[in-house]
Specification:
single chain, about 180 residues, alpha+beta, Transcriptional Co-activator pc4, Chain A, 2 domains, five-stranded antiparallel β-sheet, globular
Length: about 180
C-alpha cells in the first residue's frame, strides 16, 4: 500500500472512531475524509476503497464487542440462545421451518450461493439486513468486507425500488 493510500485509510478510520455510530454513514465518512484530505473520494474506485475501510472497521467493532461479551461471561449468550430457541419453537408451532443461524448468531434468511447469503442481525440496537460474502476461518464462516448492510429504512427503500429495477433489467435484456 503506497503512502497516499495509507493516509486516506488513516483519515477514513479517524472519522468513525470519533463519531456517534448511530448517525454516521459511509457517505458522511467519505465526505469528511475528502474535506480533510482535499481530494475527491467520490470516484468509483475511491468510493469502493472507503467502503472497504469502513466495512473492515465495523467488522472489527463487532469482533471487539463479541470478545467483550465473552469476557463478561456467557449469561447474555445464554439468554439469547434461550430466546432463539423459543422463537424457533414458536415458528415450528406455526408450521414454519426451523431457523438457521450463522456462526456470529445472525439469522440466515437466504443463501444466494455457497459463499453469499442474506442475513438479519443486530448492531448497536439496530436491525440490519446484510447481503455479504463469507469465508471459512478456523472452521467458522466469517463475514468478509464484500457486501452491504442496510438498516430497515434502507431495506424498505430497496424493496420499494425493486419493481423499477426489475423493469429496467427487462428493458435492458429486451434491447439485446
Amino acid at each position: 500500500m503506497d503512502e497516499a493510500t495509507k493516509k486516506v485509510e488513516a483519515t477514513v478510520l479517524e472519522i468513525p472512531r470519533g463519531s456517534d455510530m448511530e448517525s454516521v454513514t459511509e457517505n458522511k465518512v467519505r465526505t469528511a475524509a475528502a474535506d480533510r484530505l482535499g481530494i475527491d473520494l467520490s470516484v468509483s474506485n475511491r468510493k469502493l476503497f472507503v467502503r472497504g475501510v469502513v466495512d473492515e472497521y465495523l467488522l472489527s467493532l463487532s469482533s471487539q464487542e463479541e470478545a467483550k461479551a465473552a469476557e463478561e461471561g456467557d449469561a447474555g449468550r445464554e439468554s439469547k440462545d434461550k430466546e432463539r430457541k423459543e422463537d424457533e419453537e414458536e415458528d415450528e408451532g406455526k408450521g414454519g421451518g426451523k431457523r438457521e443461524y450463522g456462526d456470529q448468531g445472525d439469522l440466515i434468511l437466504c443463501r444466494l450461493s455457497s459463499k453469499r447469503r442474506v442475513t438479519l442481525s443486530e448492531f448497536k440496537g439496530r436491525s440490519l439486513v446484510s447481503i455479504r460474502e463469507f469465508y471459512v476461518k478456523d472452521g467458522k464462516e466469517m463475514p468478509s468486507a464484500k457486501g452491504i448492510s442496510m438498516t430497515m429504512e434502507q431495506w424498505e427503500a430497496f424493496c420499494n425500488a425493486a419493481p423499477a429495477i426489475e423493469d429496467a433489467i427487462k428493458k435492458l435484456e429486451d434491447s439485446d
